[in-house]
Amino acid sequence: MRISEDNKLEKIIIVGDRVLIKPKTSRDQTKSGLYLPPGVQEKEKVQEGYIMRVGPGYPIPADFGYDEEAWGQEEEEVRYIPLQAKEGDLAIYLQRDAIEINYLGEKYFIVPQSAVLMLVREEDL
């Protein structure tokens, strides 16, 4: 799943160590042929979906060593440890930690990276 430049998600900024996931379309029918009502798949503990946006990562404190010149300088920008997840990855994540949102009629989940169990990455994306 490739993210285009004119995508409607360009305006979304994900904060910290979270990722925005679009859930994979759930199958309405089980392998044995039973049809499931809406919401049954959503209540399972583990879900999968595609990562659409990624936050900057884990914030780390700035190095505030004693320096006479530091008194006149402005505050340093926040630095981050980047996340493993990248846009376009297929993520297997814990549903209990996900926050569901609806954006422009589409369903998404905001998930902390700690709730992501596994990533599947297509290197040619």
Automatic annotation (TrEMBL):
Keyword line: Chaperone
Keyword Transcription on entry: no
Signal peptide: none
Pfam families linked to this entry: Cpn10
Molecular functions per Gene Ontology: ATP binding; protein folding chaperone
Keyword rRNA-binding: no
Any coiled-coil regions, as ranges: none
Family recorded in the similarity comment: Belongs to the GroES chaperonin family.
Protein name: Co-chaperone GroES
